[in-house]
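Q: Sequence in, structure out?
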Amino acid sequence: MGIFGKRGKNREERAAEIVGKVASGKGFYGRATRAFLGAEDFATVQQSIAAHHSSHDVQQLLAAGVPTTPAVVISVDDTGRLVNFDPVVDLVLQPAGTTDPITLQTLVSKLRIPRAGDQVLLIADPARPGGFLYAGDGVTP
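A: Exactly. Output:
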């Protein structure tokens, strides 16, 4: 209970709210970030935030027991962006049972960066029917 009887948000909730405003470009933080960075750099920030949210969603889906699809890595390209010191990469993957390769831009652990020929796991993206999310190599540290 606060001084005046209201209970405020904790730090994590407030930080998540600010990140949401920055990512959407709304509110004081979002408008200020967009104004100071410019359009190109602001788009990079938005992509990095989206990559972080994507990896968080994958962890929740894995914990819920959503089935995975194996895929083989065809190529890996660095985007030059980091989120919490982990790289964001462009992956070209060949899912099992398909003939068309898919391309994903995703956050990977710097300790487990996939290489061409490695087998990784994908999860069906609930937000985009027919799309996939990178779920790692299936090995838990």
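Residues 39-63 form the longest helix (25 residues).
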